[in-house]
Amino acid sequence: MANAKIVPLRPHLVLARPGQDGPVSVDWDEGRRMYVAACERCTETLLTERLDQAHGWADEHRCDPELVALLTEILDRRAA
Ligand SMILES: [Zn+2]
Q: What's the superkingdom here (predicted)?
C-alpha cells in the first residue's frame, strides 16, 4: 500500500468588496505554513498562522490611497 500523503487544505478566497478598497485574496502558503492575505489592489499583505485572523484583516483592510495612486501610475506607464 502506498504511503498516505497528507494534502493540506488550500483555501483560496477572494473577498470582493464594494467601494474604494480592493478585493483581498486569502491563500495557504505551504512553504511558510502560513495564511497569506493579500490585497489585489494595493498589494498590502498579511502573513498569519490563523485563518480567522486573515479573514479579519481582509474585512478591516483599507487601501492606502497614495499607494494605490502610485501603483496605478506605475502600471499605466508599463502599459503605455
Ligand atoms: Zn488594499
A: Bacteria
Buried b (16+ CB within 10 A) or exposed e, 39-63: bebbebebebeeeeebbebbeebeb
One pLDDT digit (tens) per residue for the chain, 80 residues: 567 776 666 667 777 665 668 889 999 999 999 999 999 889 999 999 999 999 999 999 999 889 889 988 998 998 87
pTM: 0.68
Amino acid at 64: D
Tell me how far the alpha carbon of residue 3 lies from the centroid of ligand 1, in angstroms. 42
Distance 78 CA to ligand 1 centre (A): 20
CA of 59 to the centre of ligand 1 (A): 11
